[in-house]
Amino acid sequence: MPPKRKTVAPQRKLPQPLPQNSCWIESDAYDRRAYGNLRSESGSLRALEESGATFLPYFPSLLQDLFYLLFKYNIIFQEDRNVVPSALFNRALLNSLRQGSLYGALRELTLLDEAKSGLCVLLLGEALVALLKSEKLLTRRDMLDLWDVHKQEEIRERKREELAESEKLLQEALEAAGKKSLAKAKEALQGEFEGADALLRQKAARLKEDFQRLESQAASRFQAQAIAVAQQLDDAAEQAEQWGLTLGTGYRSPPGQKLELGKRLASNEKLKKLARLVGRMKFHALALRKKVFERSSEEILEIERGDRVSRLLPHELLALSHPILCKDFYRRFLDQELLQ
Fold first, then answer.
1. What is the pLDDT of residues 31-87, one digit of tens each?
2. 53 and 143 in contact (C-beta within 8 Å)?
3. Distance, CA of 232 to CA of 31 (rounded, Å)
4. Rounded distance, CA 156 to CA 198, Å?
5. Cα separation of 318 and 335, whole Å?
6. CA-to-CA distance for 192 and 184, rounded, in angstroms?
7. 305 pairs with which residues across the strands?
8. Which of 79-93, 113-127, 258-272 is predicted with the least confidence, judged by mean pLDDT?
9. Helix/strand/coil (H, E, C) string of the chain?
10. Are the C-beta atoms of residues 160 and 189 closer than 8 Å to each other?
């Protein structure tokens, strides 16, 4: 028979890192690693990123900024010139959440807690996708304007790369004729880059004016969704904690698994009821483990001779299996000489 092939488990595909020029909140390596672990462990979070990316160009970056806004202790926003214009609407949503009265209550639940912060981001993201689908936050025209600016950003970036490549080739050129032709090409690329940059600034300015008009309406709708999310978050996080703590070992499941469990608990009434029952059973089991079991007050302090079969030593009972010693056992039993 041919040898069996070894089955190799497929490696988990790690999500691609997000571009830093699309994020509004400053982060360090610890923050990025915490959110990266959530993205790699939570399939729901990755699916949400793909779903939202069809509406907003940098929706995954918006989710990351929401996580930092809830998780980090010190919140520092990037300057406008360091972030691409197509992520402008992300800043409006972040400001609306941060300036709302609910932000303080959410921070008390999520500060420096990866699982609760991720669960809140997941619930807020799903609410955002629902609002975008229904065009209650942005109209289809507004979203097309965002994508138009994003496309113009890509064109400008491509022109910038071509210009940088032409400068590199110009420095490496040896012949005079080659340098002359490369210089002309560089001038043409320089003009194309400046034109693309000017067009991008024009579209970004127009987009900023439109969003200033829509910001108050979008903020009120987003804050209303945040209130509903806050009502679900506390119960779902507590129930996920009850499921995530293994009885007797003190082992806590990874934040990504708690995130998945909390998401299911937030949307399934049967699982909520079951989580409450499991939590109640856990407390009873822990109390039972701490309970002192009842023991008999009798203790063996010495060995004596007698005929009480219930108190005989084990080696005395072994004599019953021997054809000769069993007779001696009966004799000593009648004489009350058995060890007990």
1. 888 888 888 888 888 888 899 889 988 899 999 999 999 898 889 998 888 888 888
2. no
3. 25
4. 9
5. 18
6. 13
7. 339
8. 258-272
9. CCCCCCCCCCCCCCCCCCCHHHCCECCCHHHHHHHHHHHHHCHHHHHHHHHHCCCCCCHHHHHHHHHHHHHCCCCCECCHHHCCHHHHHHHHHHHHHHHCCCHHHHHHHHCCCHHHHHHHHHHHHHHHHHHHHCCCCCCHHHHHHHHHHHHHHHHHHHHHHHHHHHHHHHHHCCCHHHHHHHHHHHHHHHHHHHHHHHHHHHHHHHHHHHHHHHHHHHHHHHHHHHHHHHHHHHHHHHHHHHHHECCCCCCECCHHHHHHHHHHHHHCHHHHHHHHHHHHHHHHHHHHHHCCCCCCCCCCCCCCEECCHHHCCHHHHHHHHCCCHHHHHHHHHHCCCEEC
10. no
Neighbours of 235 (CB within 10 A): 15
Q: Is-contact 263 141, C-beta < 8 A?
A: no
CB–CB of 42/118 below 8 Å?
yes
Looking up tokens 């008390």, which residue turns up? 108
Give phi and psi for 28, each to the nearest 5.
Answer: -115, -175
Enumerate the β-bridge partners of residue 25: 77
Is-contact 262 236, C-beta < 8 A? yes
pTM value is: 0.66
Q: Which residue has the tokens 């022109």?
A: 159
Q: Are the C-beta atoms of residues 175 and 131 closer than 8 Å to each other?
A: no
Which pLDDT tens digit goes with each residue over 183-232? Answer: 777 788 788 878 888 888 888 888 888 777 777 777 777 777 777 777 77
Crossing angle between the packed helical segments 59-71 and 29-41, to the nearest 10 degrees: 120
* Whole-number Å distance between alpha carbons of 266 and 283: 22
Nearest to 142 by CA among 221, 82, 95, 208: 208
Residue type, 314: P
